[in-house]
Amino acid sequence: MLITFKCKSYPEVLMYQEHAKRILDLLHKDLERGVITAEEAPRAVALLEGEIEESRKHQISEQVERDVHAHHGEKEDNEHEPIEVVTFSTRAYPLLEMLRSARDNKTDVLWGV
Asked: Where are the stretches annotated Disordered (predicted)?
């Protein structure tokens, strides 16, 4: 399921619910519906930047690597595209930019409404 984040000062941002959950849990916000007010935006930006920085310190876990190999097999597979892992920072970047815009322009971020 997709979540659409809206802000008057930034284009809409769509995220899969499972990816948005990590960010909204960090901000102590409800997954289904909510608001990050202009007053909350500076703190939200700082928290998300910190989480992104922390996630960059850790390489892909062995468990993820094993899962990828189990799915694609050990041998060369020419029928599939090369495996590309999408990092947390890549997934979070559009919402982070929206939060920065909300902070700078004193607007709210809404979802589920």
From this structure: 55-83
